[in-house]
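Lecture 7 notes: from sequence to structure.

We start with a single chain of 120 residues. Read the sequence below before looking at the structure.
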Amino acid sequence: MNEVIDMQEPKQMNVGSNRTVMYILYGMHTISWASMGTLAVIALIVNYIARSDETDDLFRAHHSYMISTFWWTMLWLFVTSPLFLLLFMPGAFAWSIVGFWYLYRCIKGWLRFANNRMPQ
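Now the structure, written as tokens:
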């Protein structure tokens, strides 16, 4: 009736599964261009949910990093969208730059996470 429950073991398993989820989320953000952004939106929702339950500062920081990367990208896509009214090429050029910036941020964050470093 008075059993002692060791809570440390599930936490260790939780860290490993959280790490896997984080790698999957970074992967989804990185290849979101192939799904026209659908994977990024799904990953964003999971980022918000997982960040609210996270206790580790490293994981919370990386969730926040992915969330801010997504929203900054959306802002820049919105700001540069009027360039498509001029001609196709200025808009396509601007969106390509934003796309490469998004890809850079995803890869940079993923590599920093793999090395247990905070995103910057």
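Confidence is low (pLDDT under 50) at residues 6-13. Keep this in mind for problem set 3.
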